[in-house]
Amino acid sequence: MKRIALVFFLLVFGLNFGLAQSASDETPATREDVEQLFTTMHIREQVRDMMDIAVKQSRQMAEQTLRKKLPDVTQNDIDRMNASMEQTLKSFDVNGMIDDMVPVYQHHLTKADISAMATFYQTPTGQKLLREQPQMAAEAMTAMQPRMQKMMSSMVDQAEKMAKEATTRPAPSGGEAKPATEKN
Fold this sequence. Notes:
Elements: H1 2-25, H2 31-41, H3 43-69, H4 75-91, H5 94-108, H6 111-121, H7 124-168
């Protein structure tokens, strides 16, 4: 009887210990956990770097598209477009965007997940990845730029075609012109 009681005790204790272990693995990450991970990952700097890269490459693509579509575009027009993009970049609230990210990370990651990620990003390989990631992203964007330029140009062509069709439709006989979205 003592043996059965001992086995029962061990099973119950072991089950409770196992439940406590799995529950701790599912402990939600706190805001502080996520913010510490962001600090380890240099998220603020990464967001700023990525925004700089994105604006630079968007500026190049926009200029190429404008010059192709509007051969008479002036350097003054290009400068105004660049100034507008620069002003938009300056108005981004990086800290606010990062604050918005915290609950998303909390929703998807547990305390154990955050801890494992922080441990990785504190290693030399993790730090190398963080250091190299902006350059890798910039090089990837450069590699994709011809494809994106072609897609962008195709979209502009399609929009121009649709606009031209909408303005050149003949008015139906007997009255008012139908809106461009209606079929004739």
